[in-house]
Structure formats: structure tokens, C-alpha cells
């Protein structure tokens, strides 16, 4: 092959490369002209047959042609790759001006909402929120609350025992006992609320559950009276059930308070006239409370001749049922989305 034909081959390949429209065709051109059976390979194989004078000149031109072809192919390859990426981006682009799809979001559980409302109320009254273990010792769950081993009131709790001395707590009162035991009154009085889950051996029905929530309050200081308790409970009732609510305190019995009371609120549906909610009485039972028993104070290392206080306990489950008209406590635990969506927190 002459030098002119070699240069003519270069032009032919350059034209072929220019007309290529995709990477597949470019590879076909490469194989056709530069492959094992292509003309460039044949030229390089025939170099040995040339004379000593022709070989250097032909070799120089052949290398120039090969380099020109490779450069053209590389340039075309990059151009095709760029065009491919641009086409893909154009095809897969997102129109950001289109309206988005609504994202379904969850909300805080109704019981959590009620607990947070109660916490906010009592924090505003100077209380601290304290939590404790759900797997508790008999010592804190019963004995430090004036319930010794043989006390008949233990039957009221109907407890889940893990061992003879370890159990699932039946109330959040053990948190109060632990707080009193370690408190230093030089830092100020005790004013706490204790929210959390509690457990009792009970048959689940519309108004009972083996697991439920509870929030208890405790105030220990000098010169605390029943009037302080009544004022606190009145503020609670008006905040949670309306400013027009009235309360009444009825004598009751709890081993850890003396005197003990049950608190009722005037019916928010009938205003006291009598209806199906209050069972015709005009009053609805809400919680238990009382002045802390001196034995409870002494067992925690607190001098009952100097310090006194009150305690109260309520069930957020019951409060939620009353406030929002929930007719079955099991709705709180069965995770029915239709029920939960009724109580979405609004922004």
C-alpha cells in the first residue's frame, strides 16, 4: 500500500467515525478498520516486506494515521457518552412545579397526648416529672407504701410476680417511695408527678385492662394541708374538663394515705342533672388522693412530725375516655388506625 492510499484510508475512517450515531456503530468502525483483519493491521504486517528506504517513511505515516484515527474515535466516544447522559437526564427529569403527593404522617397517641397535657399542667404548678422502672421490687411497690407482706390490701392490686421479691409494678407509687428515700430537703420540697405504665392481673373488657397508664403526684413539705390538695385537684379538674367543673371529695381508704378521699367531678355532659355518663348521679369519679400516711414518711427516712404532704393518682386512660367519649379502653391498645386518626394533633 502506498502512502497516498494510507492517507486516503485515514480520511475514509474519519468520515465513517463522523457518521456514527451511537456507541455500537463506533465499535463496529473500530473493528472494521483497526481489528485483527482490518486494513491497518494488514499494513503493519506488511511493513517487513518493504525496502530499508521505504520502511521508515511508511512506518511514520502509518503511526500518524493510527494516532489520528484513535484520536477521532476517542473524541466521538466522549461526544456520544455526553449525548447519552443528556438524553437520559432529559427523559428522567422531574418537573418540580408539579404538586407533590400528600405524605401520610402519624400523630401522637391519644394516651400520650393526655399524659403530656397533665405533665404540662403540673409543670406549670412547679412539679417535676420523674420516672422509674416498670419491673420493680416488692419493697418499693408495697412495703414502703405501708403494705407489709400480710396486708389484705395487697389483694386489691392482684400482681404479676416474676419472683417472690420482683414484680411488674401495680402503680407508679414506687417512684414516689424512691424519690422520698433519696431526697434532701435542703434543696427544697418534693413536688413530683410520676407517669408510666402499670400492670395488674385483670380480665380485659371495655373498662379494664391488664396494662394501663397511670400518673401520680406527690408533695412533701412543711405545713402542707388538705386545703392544698383540694386546690390542686380543683385546678386539675378545671384544666382537663372545663372551667365550670366542680369537685367533691368522698372519704375512702388507701393504705398509703390517711385521710384518703375519692375525687368526683360534676358531670360535663348534664351539668349535674343526671345522665347516662354519670349514671344519673350528676358526678363522675376521677381519681383517688389523700394525705401521705406518717408510716410512709418514716419508712423513707422523713420525720413525720416536721414534714407532711399529699398524694394523688389518676388514670390517663379513664381521663381520655371521659374527655373524648371513648367507650372501650381496648381501643387504646389495638392500634386500629381508624380510631387513632380521630385524634390527630393539629399544627
Describe the fold and architecture.
- It is a single chain.
- It is built from twelve helices and nine strands.
- The mean pLDDT is 87.
- It has two domains: 90 residues; 234 residues, Bira Bifunctional Protein, Domain 2 (BirA Bifunctional Protein, domain 2).
- The protein starts with a helix and ends in a 7-residue tail after the last helix.
- The strands form two sheets. It has a seven-stranded mixed β-sheet with strand order 1-4-5-9-8-7-6, with helices on both faces. Strands 2-3 form a two-stranded antiparallel ribbon.
- α1 packs parallel to α4.
- Helices cover 41% and strands 18% of the residues.
- The protein is of the alpha+beta class and 347 residues long.
- Its EC number is 6.1.1.20.
- This is Phenylalanine--tRNA ligase alpha subunit.
Tell me the structural class.
alpha+beta
SS elements, strand count: 9
Number of domains: 2
Give me the side-by-side strand order of the main sheet.
Answer: 1-4-5-9-8-7-6
Per CATH, the architecture of the largest domain is 2-Layer Sandwich
Query: In sequence order, what are the helices and strands, one letter per element?
Result: HHHHHEEHHEHEEHEEEHEHH
Given as residue ranges, the uncertain stretches (5+ residues, pLDDT < 50) are: none
Count of separate DSSP helical elements:
12
User: Biggest β-sheet: count, sense, barrel?
Assistant: 7 strands, mixed
Q: Tell me the CATH topology of the largest domain.
A: BirA Bifunctional Protein, domain 2
CATH class of the largest domain: Alpha Beta
Strand residue content? 15-25%
Report the end-to-end length measured between terminal Cα atoms: 84 Å
Q: Compute the gyration radius: what is it?
A: 43 Å
Calculate the mean pLDDT score and round it: 87
CATH superfamily of the largest domain: Bira Bifunctional Protein, Domain 2
Morphology call: elongated
Amino acid at each position: 500500500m502506498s502512502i497516498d492510499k494510507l492517507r486516503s484510508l485515514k480520511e475514509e475512517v474519519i468520515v465513517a467515525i463522523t457518521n456514527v450515531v451511537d456507541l455500537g456503530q463506533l465499535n463496529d468502525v473500530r473493528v472494521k478498520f483497526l481489528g485483527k483483519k482490518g486494513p491497518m493491521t494488514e499494513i503493519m504486517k506488511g511493513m517487513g516486506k518493504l525496502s530499508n528506504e521505504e520502511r521508515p517513511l511508511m512506518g511514520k505515516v502509518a503511526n500518524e494515521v493510527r494516532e489520528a484515527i484513535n484520536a477521532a474515535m476517542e473524541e466521538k466516544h466522549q461526544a456520544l457518552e455526553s449525548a447519552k447522559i443528556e438524553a437520559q437526564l432529559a427523559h428522567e427529569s422531574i418537573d418540580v412545579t408539579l404538586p407533590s403527593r400528600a405524605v401520610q404522617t402519624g400523630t401522637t397517641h391519644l394516651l400520650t397526648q393526655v399524659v403530656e397535657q397533665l405533665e404540662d399542667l403540673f409543670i406549670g404548678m412547679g412539679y417535676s416529672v420523674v420516672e422509674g422502672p416498670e419491673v420493680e421490687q416488692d419493697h418499693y411497690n408495697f412495703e414502703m407504701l405501708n403494705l407489709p407482706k400480710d396486708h389484705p390490701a395487697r389483694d386489691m392490686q392482684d400482681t404479676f410476680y416474676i419472683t417472690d421479691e420482683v414484680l411488674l409494678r401495680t402503680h407508679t407509687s414506687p417512684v414516689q417511695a424512691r424519690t422520698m428515700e433519696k431526697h434532701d430537703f435542703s434543696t427544697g420540697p418534693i413536688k413530683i408527678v410520676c407517669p408510666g405504665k402499670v400492670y395488674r392481673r385483670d380480665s380485659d373488657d371495655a373498662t379494664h385492662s391488664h396494662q394501663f397508664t397511670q400518673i401520680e403526684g406527690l408533695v412533701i413539705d412543711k405545713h402542707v394541708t388538705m386545703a392544698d390538695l383540694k386546690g390542686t385537684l380543683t385546678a386539675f379538674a378545671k384544666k382537663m374538663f372545663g372551667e365550670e367543673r366542680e369537685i367533691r371529695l368522698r372519704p375512702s381508704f388507701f393504705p398509703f394515705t390517711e385521710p384518703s378521699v375519692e375525687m368526683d367531678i360534676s358531670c360535663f355532659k348534664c351539668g349535674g342533672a343526671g345522665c347516662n355518663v354519670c349514671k344519673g348521679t350528676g358526678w363522675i369519679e376521677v381519681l383517688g388522693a389523700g394525705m401521705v400516711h406518717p408510716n410512709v414518711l418514716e419508712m423513707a427516712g422523713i420525720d413525720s412530725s416536721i414534714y407532711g404532704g399529699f398524694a394523688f393518682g389518676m388514670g390517663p386512660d379513664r381521663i381520655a375516655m371521659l374527655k373524648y367519649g371513648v367507650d372501650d379502653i381496648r381501643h387504646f391498645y389495638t392500634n386500629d388506625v381508624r380510631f387513632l386518626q380521630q385524634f390527630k394533633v393539629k399544627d
